[in-house]
Sequence to fold (149 residues):
Amino acid sequence: MVVDVLFPGWAPFKGLAASQDIPAWIKAHDIVMDYPWRTLVGGHLGRLGVRADATTQQQYVADLLASTRAAEASVDPAPFYEKYGPTGNSWAIFKTYLDAVATTAAAPVAAKYTGVLAAADVFTVDNAMVMLESLRIDFGELGPFGVRP
Fold:
């Protein structure tokens, strides 16, 4: 039984299962797969899982991580500076940039997993935002905000 890590047949709940330590949550997937189990009780949504379910979720998380990194590198922050910089609203620059990165990161992942994992269309933007915050905070990947003029 593994609760709030694997969701058989479903995308992870909002915010990567409301996890506070994303690197440890990702590692928990590997730990679970090290055990020789055949049937998983995920603790939610009333569906037993099999190893293929765990592998699918691991791939979803890996795709989300890769897509978030790619979006962070590709979304240009300049338009957000141009729009909000003259008003001095630094938080608006930051928020709208982060929202754009999360939306950009989520799009290909949601498209790939909609119809494969239930709620991929519902939670992937939220999951991408949490992944982005983890990249910034846990991994020190600050994107354009790590550069000081």
Observations:
- Helices lie at 14-18, 22-34, 51-74, 78-84, 90-113, 120-137.
